[in-house]
Amino acid sequence: MKLSILDLALVSPTHGVAATFAASVASAVRAEELGYTRYWFAEHHNMTSIASSAPAVLIAHLAAHTKKIRLGSGGIMLPNHSPLVIAEQFGTLASLHPGRIDLGLGRAPGGDHKVFAALRRDPAAAEHFPQDVLELQRLLGPTSNEMAVKAIPGTGTQVPLYILGSSLFGAQLAARLGLPFAFASHFAPDALEAAMEIYREEFRPSEACPTPYAIAGMNVIAADKQEEAEQLFYEAWRRIARSIGKIESSESVDDGILLRSPAGQHARHMLTYAAVGDGPRIKAQVEQFAKQSRADEIIVATHLIEPSTRIRSYEILAQAMDLSPR
Q1: What pLDDT, on a 0 to 100 scale, did the predictor assign at position 14?
Q2: What is the mean pLDDT of residues 239-249?
């Protein structure tokens, strides 16, 4: 079982964004040593608790501090950008770090309608997502004299594309285009099994991906003791609920009321697929999830802000799942 990491780039209210990026570097370096396959960032905007608004920049920064681990986006929200710009950005990354760059693509905005307006984009851009993916494939594919515009750098790099999704749409598109598929079950659990079934049943082989390849997201919080892991999970649940409820960190609110509120219940539902515990319990839960999802690879989201606690979670998971150090 391949294991990878989705870095949520969580911002500590007391330490700030620079500390978040330093923690990402430390986490990626340790993940590489432990044998994780890839390390991804997701594009988010206008969220005070998340600092991954510019994945390509973060990928470049981490690539300069690591040697082997694959780095990429999980994902770039393509409706926010022209395919040419993304081809040039990731073509640059692939030229600097050959064989290490992934390009995961989503059709969500990574923010609300205000973000779309600030980005000078039309909300209807999401409707053109399949066409934009195909254009991006062409821009990153073999060069041709017939191309009026080329991505330089970018053309010929053939950066691997991954379709991301939290519904059946992404599964169908990935299957039709013959691309790997990553399902966001770490926050959207409902359609996981149906999406994976559709992807495998409807998959059309391609040169880039001859057989189906599916990645599933899972929340993992591991600690040396079960009680510690459960407390960390409780804190993560509370933090997500406050974010959904738009409750500032300075505002006092009763935890019981918060977690029973619609925001608290929504946060708990997002965390449906979660492995929480010490090594043996984590191993059993991850293996069960892999069997249920039929995933070829699990990408883990760890809702921990403290760098040492997060890295320790990665270490326990790697040991439990017998990852081979790189």
Answers
A1: 86
A2: 85
Under DSSP, the state recorded for 8 is -
pLDDT in tens, 9-49: 999 888 899 999 999 999 999 999 999 999 999 999 888 88
Q: Contact 302/219 with Cβ under 8 angstroms?
A: yes
Enumerate helices (H) and strands (E) in the chain, giving the number of each.
12, 9
DSSP H helices in the chain: 16-34, 55-63, 83-96, 113-118, 129-140, 168-177, 192-202, 226-244, 255-260, 262-270, 279-293, 307-320
Tokens 């449906």 belong to 272
Crossing angle of helices 55-63/16-34, nearest 10°? 50
Q: Rounded mean pLDDT of 300-313?
A: 95
List, for residues 130-177, the tens digit of each pLDDT value: 999 999 999 999 988 778 899 999 999 999 999 999 999 999 999 999
Counting every residue, how long is the chain?
326
Q: Residue 298, Cα to own-chain centre: how many angstroms?
A: 11
d(CA 275, CA 64): 31
Strand pairing report for 181-183 and 214-222: parallel
How far is Cα 241 from Cα 259, in angstroms, rounded to an integer?
7
Tokens at 292, concatenated: 């249920």
* Diameter of the chain measured on Cα atoms: 65
Are the beta carbons of 321 and 286 closer than 8 angstroms? yes
Residue 141 half-sphere exposure, CB side, CA atoms within 13 Å?
A: 12
What is this structure's pTM?
0.94
In this structure, are residues 7 and 51 in contact, taking their beta carbons and an 8 Å threshold? Answer: no
Query: Do 208 and 133 form a contact (C-beta atoms < 8 A)?
Result: no
Gap between the Cα atoms of 292 and 146, Å rounded: 46
Residues whose CB falls within 8 Å of the CB of residue 50, separated by 6 or more in sequence, listed in order: 8, 9, 10, 11, 44
pLDDT in tens, 209-224: 999 999 999 999 999 9
